[in-house]
Amino acid sequence: LSHCFSTFASGVIFPVNGLQAEDSLFDDEVVVEIRRAITQQAVETKSLPLSWFALELALEEKAEGCEVLTLEQCKEIAKLLSVRNVQAALEFLHNCSLLLYYKEQNVVITDPQVILNILTHLTVAFYKLKNGKHLERMPHGVSQVEFDSFTKNAIITFHFFKELRTGPEQERKILTDEKLLQIFQDLLLAVKIADRAQDRFFLPALLPTVSLEEINKLRKQHTSPSLVLLFTQCDECSTPCGCEKTQCISPCGLFCASVVKLLSTGWTFDEQSPTYSNC
Fold first, then answer.
1. What is the DSSP string of 76-122?
2. What is the reported pLDDT for 102?
3. Interhelix angle for 113-130 vs 144-153, to 10°?
4. What pLDDT score was predicted for residue 268?
5. How far apart are CA 14 and CA 16, in angstroms?
6. Which residues make beta-bridge pairs with 192?
7. Residue 64 CB: number of other CB atoms within 10 A?
8. Backbone dihedral region of 14: left (phi > 0), alpha (psi from -120 to 50 degrees) or beta?
9. Residue 171: phi, psi to the nearest 5?
């Protein structure tokens, strides 16, 4: 549909003459082009067992209050519903965004709010500790080096993560700390930092953001962040077009995922440099 946008409109609203539809004269040029584009991109439909959708509802009911299930629990429910290929059913429901299925961890999450709640807790803990405030349950056995690394660069050791994490007992029993950190890595929310002494993980999304003006100030002071990704944006069309009229800092989510991807492929970064969630 990109051709329709570039040819007929400057936004997402396409003006058409709906009155022509009464006389079967609905041959508006825009509608014809949209119909053609949709037809070309049409996908083949497949018939799927109704029991797969019944399985999704049953899993959601079973996990109520915890929102996390083991693969074995899912197989037991699937057996009651005569679902033969449980793996295929779970993968399909995962691809439809009806649940989260992590095969390697043997974990099914019926509500992604579980992940969001854990991230929210970590973010709140990060900013409280960074600003010298106390948590309701302060972590035990954490060294000053671990503490400083977390509050400065959002780099957390496995022990520190385990101490900070909260949640229902059943959730933590199924979604263990090891499995959760692996899922964070799969979602490009965290990356494991090579360290012979102990396991450490970088969570860039916890870090504060910074404006382009502040980045330029840091450059002049020779304390610029390790990596800066900028988009070129045109003031006239408000879209990246390469005309070099305006530079815009990359969105937080995109930058964090990019950093995690780069670090997971062998890149390193200077932990002494300023770090932010968008540069």
1. HHHHHTT-S-HHHHHHHHHHTTSSEEETTTTEEES-THHHHHHHHHH
2. 94
3. 110
4. 79
5. 6
6. 201
7. 10
8. beta
9. -65, -45
Confidence (pLDDT) at 202: 92
Model pLDDT, residue 22: 54
Which of 52, 47, 120, 127 has its CA nearest to residue 87?
A: 52
The runs of H, that is alpha helices, within 135-264 are: 144-153, 158-164, 169-174, 177-186, 212-220, 252-264
What are the structure tokens assigned to 34, written together?
């949209």
pLDDT of residue 271: 74
Q: Are 146 and 159 in contact (CB under 8 A)?
A: yes
pLDDT means per 10 residues, the chain with 279 residues, are 48 57 59 73 67 92 90 95 92 91 94 92 91 81 89 91 89 94 92 81 87 74 64 53 57 78 81 71
Nearest to 156 by CA among 173, 142, 176: 142
Instruction: Please report, for residues 105, 107, 178, 182, the alpha-carbon distance to residue 143 in angstroms, rounded to integers and kept in the order given.
Output: 30, 32, 21, 24
